[in-house]
Please model this.
Amino acid sequence: MKRLGVLLSGRGSNFEAIARNCASGTLQAEIGVVISNREDAVGLETAHRMGIPAVCIPARGVERQQHDALVAAELDRAQVDLVILAGYMRILSASFIQHFPNRILNIHPALLPAFPGLDAQHQAWEYGVRVAGCTVHFVDEKMDSGPILAQAVVPVMESDTAAVLAERILAQEHQIYSETIAKVLAGGWRIEGRRVLFGE
Model:
């Protein structure tokens, strides 16, 4: 069975959704390890509760490339096929990304290329967009700029606050992330330019 390595910094709700789908067989994969850069990450507690190996590799005071090398070594020990970012609040070094070419996935709470970076839901709400959403993409060496794998559209209601919109986007994240991971693990895809093409 294919193995996933999950990186997170906080509560890890996307990780939890993925883990539930793995446990139920909806997603034909297993999580080999969960890694956080923060000892107080709720996602670590969730992983322990679910019986999933989880470790903290603290980043404070450690040079980025050195920290990423430690994370990569842990992922290699777990023999993961894909690296899944689930609220991992660190920019990955070029050497880390090159170590896992086209094997790192991220989900961003906006319809990229609009609203990259932090607090994208609030950015979109303040801008006054009529539709928001989320994007699953491969991770490259720039922020939120890798080839897009999937997107889900979330209409913005006049009654929405930024917080309400963020929760509705998160519900879509929980659905499309596992679906996209399954498609990537199944293989048969290729990248042409910026386009990810599935099937023959």
Observations:
- Residues 162-186 form the longest helix (25 residues).
